[in-house]
Structures
1.
Amino acid sequence: MKPASIPTLTVYSRNDCRLCDEMIAALRELQRRVRFELAVVDVDADPALERRYGATIPVLAHGGHELCHYALDPAAVTAYLSKFR
């Protein structure tokens, strides 16, 4: 049986962003119950990402699919991740 891959969720954020910090902290807490990797990308370091996300941050995404904006929706993220078990 092939082992399930561990998905990597990406938080698009920026420095000095309270909402970004809150989402990242909530995701770290969620990692205690659900297996996933977490990548944090600073949108201000890439002009294309800054144009794409602008004031919409934080954005949580996986594979081009945006899971939530501004605040973590733990139920939606857990349901999404259940597809990878």
2.
Amino acid sequence: MTEQPLLIKNQEAPLRQFGKGCICKLLLDDEKGLKNLTIGTVIIEPGERTITHTRVVEEVVFAHKGEVYAVTENAEYRLAEGDCIFIPAGIEHYHENRSNETIEQIFIFSPQGPEKDMRKLPLI
């Protein structure tokens, strides 16, 4: 566990492929000494989407740059820039960019866990 504030530079985080036209970065997680949460980003190119996935933990997605759609089996949610969505554990979903601009979202997992699978994604 880290006992001091920890600054992570976005440009220093490894890039990983998270579906066609999607890149994710793990910024803060257990490898950095955090015990209770994971934070990272996903960049989605125009017209692309993440892979469909289900988390075993709670997830929050914040639309940092641009408009993103969170799509589940039963509904879709439009997140304007600055909006966020809570996705309970066990909900199958994906995130989609329907715009002509590259978008960026921030994700938070609590408790930790999915980052272990994300580390298995191919490096770019």
3.
Amino acid sequence: MAELIIPYQPRPLQQELHNDPARFKVLVWHRRAGKTVWAINEAILKAIAAMSDGKPRPRVGYIAPLLKQARTVAWDYAKEFTAQLPGFRPNEGNLHIDFLDGCRLNLYGSDNPDAARGIYLDYVVMDEYAQMAPNMWTEIIRPALSDRQGGAAFIGTPKGKNAFYDLYMRAQNDESGLWQSYLYTASETQYVDEGELQAARNDMTEEEYLQEYECSFDAAIKGAYYAKQMENLTKEKQITSVPYDPVLSVNTAWDLGLDDMTAIIFYQIAGKEIRIIDYYENSGAPLNHYVQVLREKGYTYGEHNLPHDVRVKELSTGRSRQDVLRSLGLNPLLIVPKLGIEEGINAVRSVLPRMWIDERKCDRLIEALRQYRTEFDAKTMTFRARPHHDWTSHPCDAMRYLAVSLRDPVDQRRLQSLAQQDYDIFNPMGHDNLASSNDWVPW
């Protein structure tokens, strides 16, 4: 292979990371340390190495939390560092670059995970991994690496003790040699001028500064609604294994999406305890898919709590989603009262201390509860009176409906009318179970 020119002179720490042979690297870096420059060049170098090893059509990727972030932050770097390589052909529309007559660098956003389904990868860098949904790695990217035995790097600054923290700790404790971890703070690297660091400290809260420049996982996420409650659940070891108790019925709380995510929480009530035993979400699937999921789980069901808009009828069919779910055998359906978001958030705060959450089956729900936060207006330096809409919104909306359903006792007349309906496997305990459902309402 002829001499290849990449206009990139890595800093010593960047070079150290390029030289590390670990298959999976977790890199915790402070702001302005050169993470994205390193990431793009790492991907390019891995593609070249794959071609040198005789792998046909190497594919490498760079993933940002949002596709527009990938374009804004990394696309110009990707073109700059591949422009002098043979066969350079950028595709502005699809955000990929072909080079060396076989290699391809793709840019993705975790906000559109389906774009990365079904692909293969020789290497991938997941930038600002703390802001991504955990299943982007486990369900989509990790399988894409398998047939080529590809590698990955997870980079970013902390956002509390979330999935990024868990990966960092995994790499810290790994004895197989597959994983390696690095943590670089601004005070250690001295990449940022001391005067600028002091100016930043003056403009930021202490928690913000420690998170962004000193890479503290203990600094709270700005504006997180349930930070205190989730921290207490962790301390009290209420995030643990929570097995299904066949003596108790399983209730569900839904956030029903149309073109986006549908989230379902499965829970049991035992005295004052609220046991969150399972969680499921999917996007773009028809309602019969979710009903089939409930069947396959094999639980004995009690109530299914749905948001108020489930009653809205579609113009094309004249039927509501409530009608469709009932026709599919999902009974009894209870409509959660419509409350303001702030009131619903307060309802969640009030019931979280009584919850026990299964750490394995509900890992994505747990992560969402930790990261769910208010919008911050950078211009006015104030928090807005509404949540930031991202992947955490759907599981947290389902939790809000769960909390509100517990706060508002079920209307007995509604229960009596529901008791007249036909039941199938979704209420195998019969009408007596339904009639006693109000016994566990704790308000």
